[in-house]
Specification:
The structure is a homodimer of 446-residue chains. The first copy, chain A, is built from 13 helices and 25 strands. Chain A has helices at residues 13-29, 50-54, 60-63, 67-70, 122-125, 132-151, 155-161, 171-187, 217-229, 315-333, 374-387, 391-407, 429-435; strands spanning 5-9, 34-39, 43-45, 64-66, 77-81, 84-88, 93-96, 99-102, 105-108, 112-114, 163-167, 201-205, 232-235, 240-244, 247-250, 254-256, 259-262, 266-268, 285-286, 292-293, 296-301, 306-307, 353-356, 362-366, 369-372. The longest helix of chain A is centred in the first third of the chain and has 20 residues, at 132-151.
Chain lengths: 446, 446
Amino acid sequence: MSSPRIVICGAGFGGLTAARTLGEWFSRSRRAGNLLLIDKENYHLFQPLLYQVATAGLSGPDIAVPIRSILRRFPQIIVRMDDIRGFDLQKEEVLLEGGAVPYDYLVLALGAITGYFGHATWSEHASGLKALSDAHQIRNQLLLAFEEAESTEDLRKREELLTVVVVGGGPTGVELAGAIAELARRVLRRDFRRIDPTKARILLIEAGSRLLTQFPERLGRIAEQKLRGLGVDVRLFSPVQDLRERSVVLAAETIRTATILWAAGVSPHPLAASLPVPRDRSGRLLVLPDLSLPGHRNVFAIGDMVSVPGVPAIAPAAMQMGRHVAGVIIRDLGPGTARPENRDPFHYRDKGMMATIGRAAAVAWIGRAAFNGPVAWFAWLAIHLAFLIGFRNKVSVLFEWTWAYLTYRPGARILLRSEGTGRPKRRSPSASSRIEDRPGTSGSSR
Amino acid sequence: MSSPRIVICGAGFGGLTAARTLGEWFSRSRRAGNLLLIDKENYHLFQPLLYQVATAGLSGPDIAVPIRSILRRFPQIIVRMDDIRGFDLQKEEVLLEGGAVPYDYLVLALGAITGYFGHATWSEHASGLKALSDAHQIRNQLLLAFEEAESTEDLRKREELLTVVVVGGGPTGVELAGAIAELARRVLRRDFRRIDPTKARILLIEAGSRLLTQFPERLGRIAEQKLRGLGVDVRLFSPVQDLRERSVVLAAETIRTATILWAAGVSPHPLAASLPVPRDRSGRLLVLPDLSLPGHRNVFAIGDMVSVPGVPAIAPAAMQMGRHVAGVIIRDLGPGTARPENRDPFHYRDKGMMATIGRAAAVAWIGRAAFNGPVAWFAWLAIHLAFLIGFRNKVSVLFEWTWAYLTYRPGARILLRSEGTGRPKRRSPSASSRIEDRPGTSGSSR
């Protein structure tokens, strides 16, 4: 293969790491070849800080970097913003909204979406937190609830508006509940005249016996204590029976609330189900030890789409997988025409995991050692800053954090309620981007 | 009036200045009273920098500050986020979405919206730039046009996508055209593989004989030269005959383009037309010299809603009007029971005006003196930073400017195309905010 065509689908942590590793190898080895990186957005999103966009601490561009900008120094990499429709593994083609693209190597790195355990209607009542639009939507919902509580005369309704329920006691749920508690109790404290935001009820609902089940038990208990200290009503052993319009149904009680946030589960990208590959119970792809798909030596899947025993669904794991797959492809393409028969299996190097619980508190589980308190919090800050892509973003986030820490007045408390509604619907880019393909629809209906 | 009720509608430059001036007076004089400030958003928007949000230089929260946060130290001021439905000047009530509010004094400061000279359909084809949602919409449209141009095979369509038409040669049009030219020629230059963003056509269409008619002729010519130097195709004497789907019709030619931006006119807020008050040809209210409405001594109108001879529709004028009206009300409420019969008329103090044309170029007209070049540009930077509310915002904008100046890589090139479309429509806050009022609609239709 003198000029191999490599297609990477998804520019999250896994896909981007694979692209960079391959781009560097192409540059260094002066090999011909082309690498196409496809994503439905024009930016790479630093998901670990998404909850801070949702809770008005950061703004979107702080944690999103244009993919083209990240990869501009690799001439072999072509970035394409497009919607992936499917894959034809027989013809070796990726089917895009804008046509089919052939590949010699394919890397699937499409990540996960919010999953509701098969309860289709629950998504109507509870917002997940996977995309930047989710974060903006949650921010609007939270800020608007306080605004409406301030202006309503109906006390029952006010109580509903001042109740926030976070479902799921994993890292996302813990971080969201902590950040919302701080928003209400410290940030918005003096902003209102008729309501007292510090009286807002924030509930964290968890089905199991403790929070942060991926962490050692002690750290889960510490997180629980810290959250209770911030005024969060932590409910363990409380599986959700049903989500309805403005209410969360538990076995013992039904909680009336204007804001339900869902942090209880994710599903792999829906396209995972379209592949002729075995999947685990939650729908994640079961891959071979080298991360290729069974029966398709030139197709790999990485990150939150796949299930590899002992590997958690976190950014460092996706990045390691991306690097591994790039290495396998590089060795395949390396000097000599014979491709190696035996490929190295993927080995996960556990760098630990961590979660923050509001101001100056965090838990970390690194190399079999448990940390908490300010040390863990500083480690969390430093590691997240270090991995955030782009110097501009690092400076901007560091400034926002310092400012918010000193003043309790984070910068992004902006309610974009006219977003997408102030103008006629057809002007939304996702609609207009497809208009030209269907000339028949471009007439009076718009 | 021992405890006067003052209602200010609109938290732009005029309304906010009036509120602050009155808030300070209430605090200083220890008078009882309450002041209600109503806005449809929860933030004050620094409109002079809106074009930089539209052209990916700044992000929304950089130029938007929560109103409650600005006014939190004034206990007499109540901030309410609500939609104003109308005014009953006989009953002395403001009619809100959430009920009627009585007033003793009313200040109307609702500003302006994009105006299309009565061509109702033009708004479907051309985006204006008055609200934060407009800026986000334009940013998405611009970035998406380049993305689509990169992926299309159709050369005619590619040309359309790489053509941007700005209509209107006033300060907004000049600043937009200059910033878009820089975005294409300097920022996006190396980001694409198949298209060359530096070949994008940017046209600035002006009906009259020159740009910046509010400025001295020489500055208009300098702005024109600077724009041409940036590659902008400036068309004078070119009134728009019609705007259609993806095309701008001029007398001599029809320009095919995917992006039409409208900077040719504004209209006063639609509620201006509902008031029993004479208006000028463009619909702006004609007020008495003290800025009160004829026949309504306790109702004032300020800012872009009103027409006062010799006063331009710019932020400093609105702020001066806000301060003037606050002063009139304060003297009315001052010691003694007799209100002054004669009120001071409003006098505009001309502090000058300025416009930037891309990097290190600007024109300024200050105290009958014309400036241009780097001096004017630095003055522009300094003055805009000085007037931007909030220390956090000043630092953040200064950092973004410095960064973009040094690197040509501004931070907000994020295409939020899933914003408002990724989730079911009913979750948009402006929709959900009204749901509770109409229980009958909350069923299966959503």
